[in-house]
Design a protein that fits this description.
The structure is a single chain. It contains 13 helices and 19 strands. The radius of gyration is 28 Å and the shape is globular. By secondary structure, the protein is of the alpha+beta class. The strands form four sheets. Strands 1, 2, 3, 4, 15, 16, 17, 18 and 19 form a nine-stranded antiparallel β-sheet that branches. A four-stranded antiparallel β-sheet has the order 7-6-5-12, with no helix packed on it. It has a four-stranded antiparallel β-sheet with strand order 9-10-8-11. It has three domains: 137 residues, no CATH class; 163 residues, Umud Fragment, subunit A; 62 residues, 2-Layer Sandwich (Alpha-Beta Plaits), CATH 3.30.70. α1 runs parallel beside α4 and α1 crosses α6.
């Protein structure tokens, strides 16, 4: 925490210097003495007072990321004190990320300009939208963040088209690591154009957790193997179920997960791949899609009035299909044979596959691992995360782990890129806990932008992730109350 605080002060000091270099001519034109310009915080206080903004805006200066917003707002105030607020000036200011003020400060003779607004009318009257954006950004960054589910790896717990809210404080708020970025963006704007600047980085720091990660919790985290983005909090977001805690022993036998030699508890949402064979009549795929909400259906082969399919199903759907279709010859799980080796499986050269995996020990902070030729390739990933020289590790017999690690799996077990394929998730990659589904749209997965084919899943809207509580009625009640208050206000005026 101390290191994070020190770097935050250094970052604020650099902002202070940039602010002085870009605005000293404006301060002088406003009739301020030089010594007032150079005093940190006080020079911001002066501008807030001049432009009759609330003094509480000064608190934005001490929150990482919002301090940049505060400076940009004040720079716009200064520019439009001497220049008319034209579209050209606004566009130049935005495209230059505020650096347009340096051009005015050094290449325009501000002292010959007249002040456009001598009275400096109170700004808050026209700042409602801006304040709402800043408040939303603070909530988005430090408390709860919205996500959309783009893939089927967590079906049937989370469906494609679910819009979820993720709490960043349940597992401990991780403070931002990359402070210079475009608000409300993650890692890329368009294509490979990054939305952040990686020159200045804060160290990793996390506040104490409200609750620790429990086995079978659904967790949002940054993908450890995202090599396109080196900064942790800018790596791609993944959502999986945490099946292995630090210190656990993970193994999979015939597609069944075992944790510490105990078989996992069966749960409704888990899906696996099934082979389905029918005779004479093919499966009614349209009915399965629309009436049973089964999406992952692949026709493998068709010959002599026999039809073979691979379908992702849970136990409940298997029973329903068996009872609905009389022409089904068999439904059986698609389990890879034990001797089949998946080249993409973790760790490399293990000889495992998705259905026969492990045993694999999940590293725990502080534990001492005995290294040998059989496990050194497993913990190479750990050495990378903890920035240890791998060449030195070959000469050591023991290694003390510095961080906790987790093993993640998707509920759609045969259609999920998870820890079986790319390894452990370090604790500094943990983002938060999904808590709420606020919207759910069933769209065409081949063409999701075709809004005319969108269908709302009303039974999933405004529901908690565990599906125990629904708040849809409260949404309608609030909307009705807001509409009535708006109509009454309009009629009264």
């Amino acid at each position: 925490m101390f290191q994070y605080f020190i770097l935050s002060v250094i970052f604020l000091f650099f902002e202070h210097l940039i602010h002085i270099l870009g605005t000293w001519s404006f301060y002088k034109k406003l009739g301020l003495k030089c010594w007032k310009i150079f005093i940190p915080i006080y020079n911001i206080f002066i501008l807030l007072k001049i432009y009759k903004r609330s003094i509480f805006w000064i608190f934005l200066l001490f929150i990482p990321l919002t301090s940049i917003m505060l400076f940009l707002i004040l720079w716009m105030d200064l520019i439009f004190t001497f220049y008319k607020k034209t579209n050209k000036n606004i566009i130049l200011f935005l495209l230059s990320a505020g650096l347009y003020i340096f051009y005015i400060n050094y290449f325009k003779n501000i002292h010959t300009l007249k002040i456009e607004n001598q009275n400096f009318q109170k700004k808050e009257n026209n700042m409602g939208i801006l304040l709402a954006i800043i408040f939303s950004f603070i909530i988005h960054t430090y408390i709860v963040q919205p996500f959309v589910i783009p893939t089927s790896s967590m079906e049937r717990t989370l469906l494609v088209g679910d819009f979820i809210l993720v709490s960043k404080i349940h597992y401990g708020l991780r403070m931002p690591i990359s402070p210079i970025s475009i608000p409300f963006t993650h890692n890329n704007i368009i294509g490979n154009i990054k939305s952040y600047v990686s020159i200045f980085q804060f160290p990793y720091f996390r506040f104490p957790a409200i609750q620790s990660i429990k086995r079978n919790d659904i967790v949002v985290f940054n993908f450890p193997k995202d090599y396109n983005h080196k900064i942790i909090d800018r790596k791609d977001h993944y959502v999986k179920r945490c099946v292995g805690l630090p210190g656990d022993l993970i193994s999979i036998k015939e597609g069944i997960l075992f944790v510490n030699h105990k078989k996992e508890k069966s749960f409704f949402e888990k899906q696996q791949a099934y082979f389905v064979k029918t005779v004479n009549i093919p499966l009614n795929i349209e009915y399965l899609n629309n009436k049973m909400d089964i999406e992952d259906i692949q026709c493998i082969e068709e010959k002599n009035d026999e039809y073979f399919y691979q379908i992702m199903l849970n136990d409940k759907k298997v029973t329903q299909i068996q009872n609905l279709f009389d022409n089904i010859v068999f439904i059986k799980k698609y389990i890879l044979p034990i001797h089949f080796k998946e080249n993409s499986i973790f760790p490399n050269q293990s000889g495992w596959n998705r259905d026969f995996f492990g045993p694999l020990h999940v590293p725990k902070k502080g534990e001492l691992i005995k290294l040998n030729s059989k496990n050194i390739h497993i913990y190479n990933e750990i050495f990378t995360y903890e920035k240890v020289d791998q060449f030195d590790m070959f000469s050591k017999q023991y290694y003390r782990v510095k961080n906790n690690y987790y093993f993640m799996m998707g509920d759609n077990r045969h259609n999920s890129s998870d820890s079986r394929y790319w390894g452990f998730v370090p604790e500094d990659h943990i983002v938060g806990k999904p808590i709420f589904i606020w919207m759910s749209i069933d769209w065409d997965r081949k063409n999701p932008l075709n809004i005319f084919n969108w269908k709302f899943r009303w039974n999933r809207i405004m529901r908690t992730i565990n599906d125990k509580h629904s708040y849809l009625s409260l949404l309608f009640l609030f909307s009705f109350a807001y509409l009535m208050s708006f109509l009454f206000k309009k009629e009264k005026s």
